[in-house]
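Closing statement on the FE2/S2 (inorganic) cluster sub-project.
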Amino acid sequence: MNRRNFLRSVFGFLIALIGGKLILDFLKFDVNRQKTIRIPIMDIKDFPTVIDGVIVWKSSGGFNLYSSHCTHLGCILKFDKNRGIFECPCHGSRFNLDGKVIHGPARKKLRKLDYTVQDGKIFVKL
Ligand code: FES
């Protein structure tokens, strides 16, 4: 191995090492990332609305919270008041108020979110 090839090998190894470290840091950051959303209770209506990525409404049973991301490929859902369903503008999946799929291509139900109530606000971890 001549000097030029040796330096190329060392340089390539260092680039791969730095790239690997950056990728691992990114993945670690992404896995540990958990965002907390605070929603004032007074902003919550008796029909579903999307607030900060959360579908939320109040009913006689309390508060209902779902992720607003479609379980197909993640588009943000919209609520159709006339039909009382969530509809995805991307590929047409539809979900009922229980989060169950009533029309594909999505197959998984909406992700129900746990929450806590404190000082007039709902705290949700996404
Ligand atoms: S992302 Fe919602 S149906 Fe495809």
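Strands lie at 36-40, 49-51, 54-59, 62-67, 78-80, 85-87, 94-95, 101-103, 115-118, 121-125. With this model delivered, the sub-project is considered complete and its resources will be redirected to Aim 3.
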